[in-house]
Each structure stands twice: as structure tokens, then as C-alpha cells.
Amino acid sequence: MKIIAYGIRDDEKPYLDQWSKDKGIEVKAVKELLDDSTVDQAKGYDGAVVYQQKPYTAAVLDKLASFGIKSLSLRNVGVDNVDADAVKRNGIKVTNVPAYSPSAIAELAATQLMRLLRRTNTFDRKMAHGDLRWAPDVAGELDKLTVGVIATGRIGRKAIEIYRGFGAKIIAYDIYPNPELKKQGIYVDSLDELYAKADVISLHSPATKENEHMFNDEAFSKMKDGVIIINPARGILVDTDALIRALDSGKVGGAALDVYEDEVGIFNKDFGSFDAIPDERLKNLMKRENVLITPHIAFYTSTAVKNMVQYALNSNVNLIEKGSDDSEVKF
Ligand code: COI
To answer: If you classify domain 2-100+302-322 with CATH, what class do you get?
Structure first.
């Protein structure tokens, strides 16, 4: 059996090599992502392991299938960049890694929320100019606030656990409520109810066709004045222009975004200076003291990176050998 792994970064390579040695399975590591220009390298392999945020297009998936590769394992959780029709048409089986580390994501969400509440960004900026005064930057306390968690999958549930550790009151919304959480009575009946009651909204939903720009002008108008938005999920869930308007008006009091709707091609690159970042809306957000932007790093812990590589390779082997895996994605 031979597997090709695309988009392998230097920090992933030792985990890949260790797995290959332990299992005695040949894995070719390719630095480039899977696209039109690299897909031909997959010829002769039995399966492909991939990670990227740019699309897995129909053309690329058709080509993989024409090489006889029907086993595709994503090293991440989100599948919104996979052309579902092409997957189905070609009979390609796709796996993801649904739980490489829910803590990695939830811990960053909580960290950023606490930074916003305690105004550390403001104090960092003030102190850099020698201003060590307190006023007017008095902080809030999480144990006095209600956090509304949208989507209670593994990451949402871990976030709830952490927010509860700080003493926050939790309410939640999910179209598929978790039975345990349901018993606790934390679910509200609608997003509108969550918007009306939450001081902080923590977003942990996958991106689907239905929820694109779910945080738009209308949604923001239903939220509490000064609401804090935490989004470590997907950029497309938030209408960035609407968010900027809501920040300008004070409707949104703070936002922590680890994702951004136009992040592909921008995040995980060094532009050399702030001015050289080629996205004015992103820079508009980055300039604000009450907005914390991180470049899609919530997943980026050593535990998560190791699990992403090794779980995806294990899934790929299952697909190749048995034609199925527990992490198979239903499109
Ligand atoms: C995911 O797992 O889907 C992420 O968002 C993390 C990143 C590797 C893309």
C-alpha cells in the first residue's frame, strides 16, 4: 500500500515519518497542496491524505478518481471546501478528523474572550506608549455574564465546560441538541432567543449552504447592545461588512475572530509589514482595540497537529483496506 500526503508542513513531517515507520506503510510527503498542478503526482498511489483551505475542485477530484484513487482523508474537520457532487459522482470516500483536539479550539475561544473582557489588548497598546493608567478601561467579569453557545458538537461542548469553569451562565442553540445538555435545560428554542439573552456569543458551527452570513445586519440587530462575538469556526458565518457596521455603532462591543471570510491566500503568510497585508477590511478589523484577530491558529497545538496527521493516515488505511471508516463524511 502506498499513500500520498499533500500539503505536509515541516511541523507535521516528524509525525508522518513516525507513523510510516511504525506501520511499515510508504507515505510520500508532498509540500504543495492538492490542485490542478499537483494532482498528477498521485498517480500510482492507493489513497491521498490532504489538508488545505482552498477548494478541492471537481476537476481535481475527477482526476484522482481517474487514477483509481477513491480514498481521500482530510487532516482537518471542516469539509466545506470539498465539491460534494464530484465526490458522489466519482464514488470517492472522504474522511475527516472530527476530534483532533476540541480543547485546542475551545481554549483559544476562551482565551480571547477573557482578553476582550479584561481589555488586555487596550492595556498592551497603552503600555507600549508608556501609558500605565487604569481609566477608562474598566473590565467586565465572565461570571456575571451569559454566554450563548451556537452548536454543541465536541468543540462547543468543550467551550461550555471551560466557560462554566469561569462561572458563566450558559445558554445554547443547536438544531441537533445534545441529550446530556438537554437534560441540563440549557437550550433555548431559537437563535433569536439566544441573540436576545446572550452577553457573549460563541460560534462553533460548521459552515453549510444554509448558514452563510448567519451573522448579518438583521442578526446583529437582534443581539444585546455591546455583545461580544467569538468565532473560531468559519469566516463565512459572519458578514464582515455587517460586523464592521455593528462595531462602528457599538452594537457589537468586541469580537475575537480566528477565521475570516476572505482568509484563504492571506492567513499563514508573512507580508512583512501591516501595510502590506492586501485586505483593507481585515486591516480595518485588526486596527481596532476591541477586535482580536488570529490567523486561523485555534487548531495549531502540538496535540492537534499530531492527531490530525496520524488519525487521517489511519482513516486512509481503513478506506483503502476495508472501504469504510468511522470518520467517513456523508455528503
Ligand atoms: C478545521 O479543522 O477544519 C480547521 O478549521 C483547522 C484548520 C486546519 C483548517
So the answer is: alpha beta
